[in-house]
Amino acid sequence: MSISPPIRANSVDGAWPDMSDTAVHIENLSVYYGHTKALSDVCLDVAAGEYLGIIGPNGGGKTTLLKAMLGLVAYCGRVEIFGGPPQKNRPQIGYVPQFSAVDRQFPITVFEVVLSGRLDPGLKPFYRYSKKDKQIAEELLGRVGLADVAGRRLSELSGGQFQKTLIARALAREPKLLLLDEPTASVDAVSRQQIFDLLAELNRNMTIILVTHDLFAISSQIRRLACLSGRLVYHGEPELTDSIVQNLYGCPVDLIAHGVPHRVLREHGEESVNDDCGHI
């Protein structure tokens, strides 16, 4: 299946921007875990300033794609972050892992978690945080609405407070690119709205890539959508057709979203025409 490439952010009259306007460039990316292929020949360009959502079935490679952008997995192909390899430009990336990937019983306070985001790789023992480090951590706690719980342990937080803590930590290095892996999967409705409001604000100054199963994010937040099921099934506007969903999940699927604007599924009609590589 091939999809015609949409106009990218910052383009003029549909022209493709110079590569200097590209936050993420992925070319023929494949990832193996042992003999199991997690990703196959994924090609993707994400423009600087974009807000990209990634959806797909469990085991479809969404987290693996984020880890490739971070340089945390071995891969075949090419991955560039702001024109350089992930390892070189890692300080420009903020990462919010899945809720279940972090030990909430670790004896550390909210403030200390956010402050740890200021650490550089390869620091010597007995590193002391600077006054600026502490000031940035305090400002971020205020920005995400956690100033009043800065001294609490992680185990004392609600799901929403914990996710906001992880987002604040990811922002501590003042990144240009923010990667989030299902940040609203274990939070209540109020916290979910607060997190999405925060992401919309952050997108004014940074590129955001969001892995999600949340139809609210798909329908009302993100600007572009990538559908991943071991390979890139679709990229483009945040609207899904029946055929895209069937290609993504391998069978007919009903998407039901109560109270969500109906932009998720298009009207039945003419399908988009395809391009082989998945440019955003």
- Kindly name the structural category: alpha/beta
Which second-level CATH architecture of the domain at 20-102 and 173-249 applies? 3-Layer(aba) Sandwich
The fourth-level CATH homologous superfamily of the domain at 20-102 and 173-249 is: P-loop containing nucleotide triphosphate hydrolases
What is the strand arrangement across the widest sheet? 5-6-7-3-8-9
Count the DSSP helices.
Answer: 7
Largest sheet: 6 strands, mixed
User: Which radius of gyration do the C-alpha atoms yield?
Assistant: 19 Å
Shape descriptor reads: globular
- What's the mean pLDDT score? 81
Helix content range:
25-40%
Q: Between the first and last Cα atoms, what is the distance in angstroms?
A: 16 Å
Low-pLDDT segments: 1-19, 258-280
Question: What do we call the CATH topology of the domain at 20-102 and 173-249?
Answer: Rossmann fold
Number of strands: 9
What is the CATH top level name of the domain at 20-102 and 173-249? Alpha Beta
SSE pattern, N- to C-terminal: EEEHEEHHHEHEHEEH
Relative strand content: 15-25%
Task: Give a verbal description of the structure.
By secondary structure, the chain is α/β, with parallel strands linked by helices. It has a domain at 20-102 and 173-249: P-loop containing nucleotide triphosphate hydrolases (Rossmann fold, 3-Layer(aba) Sandwich). Helix content is 25%, strand content 21%. It contains 7 helices and 9 strands. It has helices at 62-70, 110-116, 131-143, 159-171, 189-202, 215-220, 242-249; strands at 22-33, 36-47, 51-55, 76-81, 93-96, 177-181, 207-211, 224-228, 232-236. The strands form 2 sheets. The protein has a 6-stranded mixed β-sheet with strand order 5-6-7-3-8-9, sandwiched between helices. Strand 6 (177-181), helix 5 and strand 7 (207-211) form a beta-alpha-beta unit. Helix 2 (110-116) packs parallel to helix 4 (159-171), helix 3 (131-143) packs across helix 4 and helix 4 (159-171) packs parallel to helix 5. The longest helix is centred in the last third of the chain and has 14 residues, at 189-202.
